[in-house]
């Protein structure tokens, strides 16, 4: 394999345009804190921005909702601004000389000020270089964050001539509740002047400012020369910020910390090696892998303390507590990729989910900081945890996890609980479907009956997945019960509905069992961020039932052909995917085709393989990969905490985890001539496809390995974990 540095292969600007919502700044793998520019976009930075408002210290990568951090943004200036609103005092900048690499970001602002960013796991670090002879002033803003990220309360205190501390209370993601972050900022040399500001203006020499919503912060001025600022975060208390800062930055220069961060990223990214002579190919692949390894974020402080879902402080001894779980997205590919590549972290991720259950009483759906946002619908935590069990990452906790999952799939959290859980369960358990009811009360942004049809399909998939775990743990009666419930998706199939010449579609039902009327399979009613066309494929656990509903294998193939515009893919895949598949990142409805911008049908290309047409899976996947390019608009849709990137990594390697809980990967044409996946157990997965050529339409002719010397339509997890060499013979189709 080549010896190219994977750090140089990453372009952190990929996804910073067209609602990819990634951030270009510095981080550590799975880090709590970051250092990245804040612009006018709710995700932080957008490549089209002309102004940077500051360099914030917490971000999510690729999320699609408002309230995404940007906490404690610091901006260098040469004089105090007339207004302390960062929308007015932001600095213009240039992309010339701008650098975005793992662990390092650099940009030049107006007035010839250069900013460099790096990070430790729990601290963001910047070096500010001013023109010669110019006093250096830094604005530390605690009253504002990313655009559309409300700050409901904040405080700032100038402790001494090197240190500022404070708190920021911000709104949690997608309409969650406020949560509190503590911070400390320490400078590498003393400042000579300082002041604070509040809603009434600036007060030179004043050490403190605190209160509710409104402009608030501190400014410090240094003698001429570079200044390095170290900002550590903690959700526990001020002592946590001090311990984090001391443990991770004490005695280290900016350059030393940057080298540490890049060494950490180099070690992480080296878990996969690829063979390609195309620089853009390398950049797309390693940037996707980089985005996968950003989240979930470390939550526990260096002393192991963290704030739990009961709002109490808990201790993680000998393990790391993680937070920010976008489960509706990540259960589909991101979770499995981490489970394969990062065993130790995945075990701690599983333990973190169980800690949420212990302290909050229920399992999460979209957990942000130390609270459940109740964002999205269905039951993603079940396939998420069952897959972690399948990978062996719940050893010692199997029964605890199983009990929590049974509580989740069989019950509904009480009204007093912040968790909403499977709110459609009463009707689902009694009648086999979640009713469509837009008036159903909700605890957050979403609730399942508002999207009853898709929730039914999600519940059924979760039940079928849990049946696998129940069977292997010896809970036979539960297994049979969950298997039966796994077929509930069939209850929504209406054989009287016709669209585009195809008959039979999943259709929402009302509480009494009547069909929703009027109804169109291309409409928004009853399905969450998708249509009946896209959700009809969310029955990968029951392919025989789906084939029967579709009218047989030939009918299923014909419908998939229409769904993907397959004949057009064969003649012009690049144009077809962009003109016939792709819609805006939030245009989920009025669609009858594959939507690669969103999660509900991410697995659909492999439905061809599941019905016995694997060659068509390879054609569709190769076409979809053309949407990932080496540029700011290089991610399709929101990256959703690494989900789309994980989809790309799996697709480029030539296998995908289509059916949760099975430990089976469905193969397709790999993108590279050779790839090596280095597992933490010391074993390697070697994937060879010597004829691979991404300029051509290729399909799998045969897969061979020492494990099973015959062609296969599945690759088993046991084979991968034991180390294997897969030789993939490819056949090129003539267009």
From TrEMBL:
Keyword hit for Repeat: no
Keywords in alphabetical order: Hydrolase
Occurrences of domain Glycosyl hydrolase family (ranges): 242-730
Keyword Hydrolase on entry: yes
InterPro entries xref list: 6-hairpin_glycosidase_sf, GH-type_carb-bd, GH92_a_mannosidase_put, GH92_N, Glyco_hydro_92, PNGase
Domain of life the protein comes from: Bacteria
Pfam families per UniProt: Glyco_hydro_92, Glyco_hydro_92N
Lineage per the UniProt record: Bacteria, Bacillati, Actinomycetota, Actinomycetes, Pseudonocardiales
GO molecular function, one term: hydrolase activity
Full protein name: GH92 family glycosyl hydrolase
PANTHER family the record matches: PEPTIDE N-GLYCANASE PNGASE -RELATED (PTHR12143), SECRETED PROTEIN (PTHR12143:SF39)
Residue span(s) of domain Glycosyl hydrolase family 92 N-terminal: 10-234
């Amino acid at each position: 394999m080549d010896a190219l540095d994977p750090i140089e292969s990453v372009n952190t600007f990929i996804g910073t345009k067209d609602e990819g919502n990634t951030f270009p700044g510095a981080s550590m793998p799975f880090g709590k804190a970051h250092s990245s520019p804040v612009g006018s976009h709710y995700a932080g930075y957008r490549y089209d921005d002309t102004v940077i408002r500051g360099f914030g210290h917490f971000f999510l990568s690729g999320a699609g909702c408002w309230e995404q951090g940007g906490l404690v943004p610091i901006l260098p200036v040469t004089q105090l601004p007339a207004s302390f609103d960062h929308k007015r005092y932001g600095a213009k900048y240039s992309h010339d000389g701008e650098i975005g690499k793992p662990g390092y970001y650099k940009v030049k602002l107006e007035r010839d000020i250069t900013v460099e960013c790096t990070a430790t796991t729990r601290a963001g670090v910047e070096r500010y270089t001013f023109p010669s002879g110019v006093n250096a002033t830094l604005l530390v803003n605690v009253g504002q964050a990313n655009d559309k990220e409300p700050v409901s309360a904040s405080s700032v205190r100038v402790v001494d001539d090197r240190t500022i501390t404070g708190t920021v209370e911000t709104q949690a993601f997608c309409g969650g509740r406020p949560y509190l972050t503590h911070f400390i900022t320490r400078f590498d040399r003393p400042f000579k002047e300082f002041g604070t500001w509040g809603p009434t203006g600036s007060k030179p020499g004043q050490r403190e400012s605190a209160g509710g919503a409104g402009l608030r912060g501190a400014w410090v001025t240094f003698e001429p020369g570079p200044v390095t600022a170290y900002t550590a975060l903690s959700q526990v208390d001020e002592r946590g910020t001090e311990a984090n800062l001391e443990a991770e930055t004490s005695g280290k220069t900016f350059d030393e910390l940057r080298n540490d961060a890049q060494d950490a990223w180099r070690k992480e990214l080296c878990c996969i090696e690829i063979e390609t002579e195309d620089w853009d190919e390398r950049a797309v692949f390693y940037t996707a892998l980089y985005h996968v390894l950003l989240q979930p974020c470390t939550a526990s402080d260096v002393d192991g303390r963290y704030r739990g879902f009961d709002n109490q402080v808990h201790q993680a001894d000998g393990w790391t507590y993680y937070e920010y779980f976008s489960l509706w997205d990540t259960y589909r590919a991101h979770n499995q990729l981490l489970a394969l590549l990062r065993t130790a972290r995945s075990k701690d991720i599983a333990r973190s989910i169980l800690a949420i259950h212990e302290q909050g009483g229920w399992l999460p759906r979209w957990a942000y900081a130390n609270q459940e946002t109740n964002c999205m619908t269905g039951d993603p935590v079940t396939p998420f945890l069952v897959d972690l069990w399948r990978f062996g990452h719940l050893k010692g906790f199997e029964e605890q996890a199983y009990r929590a999952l049974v509580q989740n799939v069989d019950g509904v959290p009480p009204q007093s609980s912040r968790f909403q859980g499977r709110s459609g369960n009463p009707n689902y358990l009694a009648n086999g479907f979640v009713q469509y009811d837009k008036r159903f009360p909700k605890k957050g942004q979403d609730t399942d009956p508002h999207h009853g049809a898709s929730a039914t399909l999600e519940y059924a998939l979760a039940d079928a997945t849990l049946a696998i775990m129940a069977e292997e743990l010896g809970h036979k009666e539960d297994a049979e019960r969950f298997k039966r419930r796994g077929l509930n998706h069939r209850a929504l199939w209406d054989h009287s509905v016709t669209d585009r010449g195809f008959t039979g579609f999943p259709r929402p039902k009302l509480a009494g069992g009547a069909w929703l009327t009027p109804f169109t399979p291309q409409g928004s009613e009853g399905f969450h961020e998708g249509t009946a066309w896209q959700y009809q494929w969310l029955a990968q656990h029951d392919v025989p039932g789906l084939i029967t509903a579709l009218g047989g294998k030939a009918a299923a193939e014909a419908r998939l052909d229409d769904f993907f515009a397959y004949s057009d893919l064969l003649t012009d895949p690049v144009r077809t995917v962009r003109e016939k598949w792709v819609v805006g990142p939030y245009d989920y409805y009025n669609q009858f085709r594959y939507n690669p911008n969103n999660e509900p049908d991410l697995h659909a290309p492999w439905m061809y393989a599941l019905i016995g047409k694997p060659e068509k899976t390879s054609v569709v996947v190769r076409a979809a990969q053309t949407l990932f390019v080496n540029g700011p608009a290089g991610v399709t849709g929101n990256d959703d905490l690494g989900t789309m990137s994980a989809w790309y990594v799996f697709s480029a390697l030539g296998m995908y985890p289509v059916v949760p809980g099975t430990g089976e990967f469905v193969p397709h044409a790999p993108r590279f001539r050779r790839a090596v996946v280095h597992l933490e157990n010391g074993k390697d997965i070697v994937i060879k496809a010597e004829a691979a050529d991404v300029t051509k339409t290729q399909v799998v002719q045969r897969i061979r390995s020492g494990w099973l010397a015959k062609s296969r339509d599945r690759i088993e997890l046991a084979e991968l974990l034991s180390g294997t060499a897969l030789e993939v013979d490819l056949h090129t189709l003539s267009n």
